[in-house]
Structure formats: C-alpha cells, structure tokens
Amino acid sequence: MSEIRELNLDNSRSTTIEGLTDEFVNLESLSMINVGLTSLKNFQKLPNLKRLELSDNRISGGLQLLAGSPKLQQLTLSGNKIKDLETLEPLKDYHNLKSLDLFNCEVTNIENYRQKVFELIPSLKYLDGYDKDEKEAEDSEAEDEEEVELS
Prior knowledge:
Leucine-rich repeat, LRR (right-handed beta-alpha superhelix); 6-stranded parallel sheet; 2 helices; 11% strand
C-alpha cells in the first residue's frame, strides 16, 4: 500500500468511504468522482495527498475531516451539495490549498461568492479554474512542485 501514489475509485458506488486506510502514506492523488458519497466520514490521514477529486457526489460538509492531508493543493468538489460559506470554513487552515473547484454547487449562487471564497481561503490561487482576476488557470502540473512551508 505504501508505494501507491495515485488511486482512482471513480464510479465505485458507495455512500461512505471504505477500504481507504492510513497505510496509503505516499498517496498523492485520489479520485472518487461519482461514487455517491454523502460524507467524508472515515477519511484517513493521508499526509502526502496533494490532489483530491470528489466531483459529483452528495457531500454537504465535513471538510475538517481532510485535516490529515496538510499538503492538499487541489480540491475538486464540483457537483456536490455545498450550500454555504460556513461549510468551506475549515479550508482556510489548509495552507497549501491552491485550487478549489465548486462548480455546480449551490454555494456559487451566493452574492460576491468568488470574492468571499478568496478572502476566506488566503492560500487559494484558483477558484473554479480562474484566479482572482478571472484569468484561467494554466495546467497545474508545474504548480505541484512548490509547497508552502508552515511556520
């Protein structure tokens, strides 16, 4: 398990996270698109996780459960049940988070949504694929190399 760096569980139908243990210590990329997840309960400590894809699930909260992944840089939550800024509050503590995708989530309907999310999460460079100035994100492969040191 410790040598696995990338794991794709897309379309594997489950309302809860199962089988993902803390033995995946070197996992850097995890994709669970369209699984049917309703929560992040049982999300394990994944200390090297940089990219997490959770699109098209039914997650409505619990983002504090990602705290065991301090290197997280890219989080995709598009097509989930995230309705308000309070739900996103835990993300402000993820100092390496550079890219967040909330496309097709109810929270995007809030007035001045983009400005508020950028204020809430200071480390964020890209929201829904665009920076603060509405410039489209470049391919993020080069971004992966730089990490913020926690003081």
